[in-house]
Amino acid sequence: MIQLPEVRWSHVATAVTSGILFSLSFRLNQYFDEQFVYSAGISLLFLPAGVKLLAVLVGRLPAIVGLLVVSIYLGAGIWPDKAMTSIVYFAVVSLMTYPIAAFGLMRLLNIRQDLSNLRYHHIVLLSLAASVLNGVVHNWLYWSQGVTTSDELWQKSAAMAMGDFMGCFVVVALFHAATGVLRRARRHTPLE
Fold first, then answer.
1. Which of 72, 82, 135, 142 is deepest in the core (most CB within 10 A)?
2. What is the pLDDT of residues 66-96, one digit of tens each?
3. Residues near 55 by Cβ (< 8 Å), separated by ≥ 6?
4. Rounded to the nearest 5 degrees, what angle is found at the Cα of 55, between the Cα atoms of 49 and 60?
5. Would 27 be classed as within a structural domain?
6. pTM, entire model
7. What is the dihedral sign for C-alpha 128, 134, 136, 139?
8. Which range (4-8, 30-34, 100-104) has the least confidence?
9. Any domain includes 89
């Protein structure tokens, strides 16, 4: 009999939290649509991209699972006319660009797994790499599925990359600043 690995409740909590935060950021971003929508499915400020990058960096595989489930759910609502296989395909491809870019760049820049040596310039580079890869791959996928025309491919890829970068940069920079403040507060708190 095959024995499955023990389920850690912290992993379940990470998956659920990542999924909920991604969904909430997606709904929040819809309030900005009037100011930032470039075209259908592309916003010039896409906060969920930042939540996705942050969740991948902090939560790893459990976060990826939570993000995937919510991405499929949201995709089904966005494209009710598409086959479920296409929705799952969109979700997997657009999600996996983030860990591929982030973990590849972390290795290249020698960023530790616990992010203890993460610096501000790393945030910019991680956001840029994930955003560009996602923008290009996502729109190639859209093109292959007939969502984007070949004439629009590069403009929409650039617009999506810019919106994802802005979302990544805002969310991850806020997280980095908050953790820095917490670290400094802990260092200056007198021990009892």
1. 135
2. 999 999 999 888 878 888 888 888 888 888 9
3. 18, 21, 22, 63, 64, 66, 67
4. 130
5. yes
6. 0.80
7. negative
8. 4-8
9. yes
CATH number at residue 106: 1.10.1760
Q: Is 130 contained in some domain?
A: yes
Q: For residue range 123-170, what is the model confidence (pLDDT) as tens digits?
A: 888 889 999 998 889 888 878 877 777 888 888 889 889 999 998 888
Q: Is the pLDDT of residue 192 over 60?
A: no
Smallest CA-to-CA distance from 38 within 181, 161, 177 is with 161
Residue numbers of the domain that contains 88: 9-188
Count of domains observed in the chain: 1
